[in-house]
Amino acid sequence: MPVTPEQQAEIDALRAQPRQTLRAVSEGMEAHLYKAIPVLDHGFVRVIDYMGDDAAICQAARVSYGKGTKSVQNDEGLIRYLMRHWHSTPFEMCEVKLHVKLPVFVARQWIRHRTANVNEYSARYSILDREFYIPEPSQLAAQSVVNNQGRGAALTADESARVLEILKGDAARTYDHYEEMISDTSPDGGAKQGLARELARMNLPANIYTQWYWKVDLHNLFHFLRLRADAHAQYEIRVYADAICKVVADWVPAAYGAFEDYRMGGAVLSAKGLECLRRMLKGEAVTQETSGMSKGEWREFEGVLNDPA
């Protein structure tokens, strides 16, 4: 269960205590504040705090006083200009702090984005819960024969069942050993020395859940989302990115619209790719052999031209 009854009671209590403020407020983000969005089987994402809105981006770009808003149309046009020309610093004026519950192996991918502030649940101080990510059968696939870091064809029903039994059995067994190692009571009820938590945790699998607070500015959040909400990203981190995308779209709708158009929906071509495109538009039949590109480059170029995604 992503959120315990105690956590839900805390969320309800926080949302029941509105406060007056002189800060810029995003009504879209206020609707998300503190709420937990379920992700995977036991995970969630929730907004703890935020700063700024679309107007704050424009205010920073114009270095003006007050709201910095000339009109909604002018602000949206400015934001699209900033996104289109890769002017990133105005987007850094907006920040968000998220509370995320996620499997450890997802956290290890996530932490590669080093332009954020992170504070993780301490397994040296506290005992980890018996919660493990167990994939749905539809997410179990063989190694891709094209992409060395991706999935290929789905496993058969029999093979999926066998893998799931291994995952569940290993998770239960390692957690039983974890509890046994840290316990100060022996199986016969007598006293014994329990192993330090900082050592006992080493035997736990990478699909156990951890939690952290993750604070990041909008520019670096967009970079995270561009990579992790992409169709080629690993499913288990992509579903977190997808959940965050929905929150950001409500928080800064103009900025997210520009991001979706220019980054998520757009494409970057190399000089060779741009030249090939110009030749094609003139009616020339360009092939990989005449393009000057490697096979990998050509495959990606064709993907940009032909892939609806």
UniProtKB/TrEMBL annotation:
What is one Gene Ontology biological process annotated in the Swiss-Prot or TrEMBL record?
Answer: dTTP biosynthetic process
Protein name per Swiss-Prot or TrEMBL = Flavin-dependent thymidylate synthase
According to the lineage, what is the superkingdom?
Bacteria
Query: What is the role of this chain?
Result: Catalyzes the reductive methylation of 2'-deoxyuridine-5'-monophosphate (dUMP) to 2'-deoxythymidine-5'-monophosphate (dTMP) while utilizing 5,10-methylenetetrahydrofolate (mTHF) as the methyl donor, and NADPH and FADH(2) as the reductant.
Q: Which cofactor does it need?
A: FAD
Q: How would you classify this enzyme at the top EC level?
A: transferase
The catalytic site is made up of R228 (involved in ionization of n3 of dump, leading to its activation)
> Which gene is the coding source of this polypeptide chain?
thyX
Pathway membership, UniProt: Pyrimidine metabolism; dTTP biosynthesis
Q: Which CDD domains match?
A: ThyX (cd20175)
On cofactor binding, the record's note says: Binds 4 FAD per tetramer. Each FAD binding site is formed by three monomers.
Query: What EC identifiers does the entry list?
Result: 2.1.1.148
Which reaction is catalysed here?
dUMP + (6R)-5,10-methylene-5,6,7,8-tetrahydrofolate + NADPH + H(+) = dTMP + (6S)-5,6,7,8-tetrahydrofolate + NADP(+)
Xref: InterPro entries: Thymidylate_synthase_ThyX, Thymidylate_synthase_ThyX_sf
Q: Does the keyword Hydrolase apply?
A: no
Stored Pfam families: Thy1
**Gene Ontology molecular function: any one:** thymidylate synthase (FAD) activity
Residues annotated for dUMP binding in this entry: Q109, W110, I111, R112, E120, Y121, S122, A123, R124, R201, R228
Q: Which UniProt keywords apply?
A: FAD, Flavoprotein, Methyltransferase, NADP, Nucleotide biosynthesis, Transferase
Q: Which Gene3D superfamilies does its entry note?
A: 3.30.1360.170
**Its quaternary structure?**
Homotetramer.
For this chain, the family text in UniProt reads: Belongs to the thymidylate synthase ThyX family.
Indicate yes or no for the key word NADP.
Answer: yes
Query: Which residues does the annotation say bind FAD?
Result: T89, R112, H113, R114, E120, D217, L218, H219, H223
